[in-house]
Amino acid sequence: MFDFLDNPQYDLLGAFWVTVKLTLYSALGSLIWGTLLAGMRVSPVPLMRAFGTAYVNVVRNTPLTIVIVGCSLVLNQTLGFALGGENFEDIGFRMAVLGLVAYTSTFVAEALRSGINTVPVGQAEAARALGLTFSQVLRLIVLPQAFRSVIAPLANVLIALTKNTTVAAAIGVAEAASLMKTMIENEADALFAVFGVFALGFIVLTLPTGLILGWVAKRVAVKR
Amino acid sequence: MQFRKTSAALAAVLTLSLAATACGNGGDKGANGDKITIGIKFDQPGMGLKTADGKYTGFDVDVATYIAKELGYKPDQIEWKQAPSAERENLIKNGDVKFVVATYTINDKRKAVVDFAGPYFLAHQDLLVRADDNSITKASDLNNKKLCSVTGSTSAQNVKEKLAPQADLQTFGGYSECLTGLENKAVDALTTDDSILAGYAAQKEHQGKFKLAGLKLSDEPYGVGLKKGDKELRDKINAALEKMKSDGSWDKFVKANLGPANYKNEPAPAITEK
C-alpha cells in the first residue's frame, strides 16, 4: 500500500524542505512587516494609523489563494515583475513568499497589537515623562514586553503559516501539496495512503512548533 | 446536567448530517430511475463546461447525454456532478455518480480501482502556442522555452521527465491561468491533451489568438469510468458508444464542440475495455 514511497520519482523530503523554507522566509518577513504595521496602528500620526488599519483589514480579509495567485498572475505574468528570479521555479517561490508575507503580517500585527494592550499605560507614560520619543517608547519599553506576552498567539500564526504554504501549489511552487497532487494523479489506487503521508508530514512540522513555543511562552511571559 | 444534554444533541446532529451525506445520490432511485448522476468536468471548454448561465456544454457532456439516453434517461433526468481529476475514483467508488465522462484517461493504476468502458475518444498531449509563433516544431524545442501546465498533471510530469527536462515549467491550479501568461508572452506554450487545448482555442474570446502545434506527444484514450465489477452497466455503455459511432452522432459531437479550433481529431477508437 505504501510502496509508492520507494518510487525515486517522488522527492518527499525535498518537497517538505521547500515547505519549511517557504515557512521560514515568510515567517521572518511577516515578523518584520507585521511589527512595522503594529507600530503604525498605534502611532500618533493619523495618516500612518489610517494606512495600517486599512492594510490590515483589507489584506486580512482577502482569501490567501487570491493574494498568491494575484501576485503570480498580475505581478509576474502580466506586469513582468520577477523579484530578480531567473526561472519559474525561483519566481514562483519568491512570489509565494511575497504573498505569504503580505497576508501573514496582518495576523502578526494584530497579535502584537493585543500584546501592546497588555502593557500598562503607566509604562508608556513614565517613559514619555523621561523624555523618550514615540519610537523610543515603542522600541525600548512597550514592544519588548508586548512580544513576551504574545509568543503563544504568534506560535499559532506560525502554525497557520506552515499550513498556508500549501496554497503556493496553486502557482506551481514545488512544495508538499504540489507533490501530493502529482502523487494523487499517478497513484489512483493508494489515494488515502497518500493523504495519510502528507497529513503526517504536516503534523511532524507543526506539533513540535506548538509544543516548543508553548514552553517558551510560559518561560518568558511577564508576570503581572 | 446542561452540558451533557448539549453535547448529546450535538452528537445527534453530527451523526444525522453524516448519515445524510453518506446516503449520496447514486442515481438509481426507483425501478425505472428518476434521476441519473453523471460526473463531468465543469471547467474545460469544449469537453465539459458549466457555463455562466448554468448550462452544461462540451463533447463529454454530449457523450454522457447520449449514453444516458441509451440507458433510458431523458436529458432532464440527468444530474451533473463536478468530477475534478483527484476525486474521480472516489466519486465512482462511493456511488456518488453512476459513471464519469471527464477526459478520463484509461490506465492500469486507475483500472485497479475502477472499471472503464470505451475508449470513446483518443487524445494526444499537445501544445497550444500563439497563432503567430512558428518556433516550436518538435518536443525538444521546448528545452529553452517557457511552458505552462497544471500542477500535478500527467502532461506536466511528462515534460519534466521525458520530453524536455530543460524547459522552464510554470504550473498553475487550472489551465485558464496559463492563458493569461500565453497571451502576455510570459509563457511560450501551454501543454495538456489536445482535446482540452482545442476547447480553449475555440472559445469565442480566444478565437484566432492561439493555435495547436499538432505534435502528438502521447496517447490518451478517454474512457467512461464506472464502478468496479459492474459488467452489466459496462456492456450497456459500450453498446451505446458503438451505436453513437455508427449513427454518426460521434462525428457530429466532435465537429460541434472541437471543430472551431481546426482540430484534426483521430477517428473514433475501437473499444478495448470489455
Please give a structural write-up.
The complex is a heterodimer of chains A (224) and B (274). With 224 residues, chain A is mainly alpha-helical. Helix content of chain A is 76%, strand content 0%. The longest helix of chain A is centred in the middle third of the chain and has 31 residues, at 88-118. Chain A has nine helices and no strands. In chain A, helix 4 packs across helix 6, helix 5 (121-129) runs antiparallel to helix 6 (134-149) and helix 7 packs antiparallel against helix 9 (191-220). Chain B folds into two domains: 33-123 and 220-261, D-Maltodextrin-Binding Protein, domain 2 (3-Layer(aba) Sandwich); 125-212, D-Maltodextrin-Binding Protein, domain 2 (3-Layer(aba) Sandwich). Chain B has nine helices and 13 strands. Chain B has helices at residues 2-23, 59-71, 88-93, 108-111, 154-163, 175-183, 194-202, 231-246, 249-258, and strands at 36-40, 43-44, 48-50, 56-57, 78-82, 99-100, 115-123, 125-130, 146-150, 168-172, 189-193, 210-212, 220-226. Chain B has a five-stranded mixed β-sheet. A five-stranded mixed β-sheet of chain B has the order 10-9-11-8-12, with helices on both faces. The A-B interface holds A 9, 69, 72-73, 76-78, 80, 87-89, 92, 169-172, 178, 180-189, 191 and B 85-86, 89-90, 109-110, 112-114, 146, 151-154, 157, 161, 168-173, 177, 180-181, 184, 186-187. Chain B: Keywords: Signal, Transport.
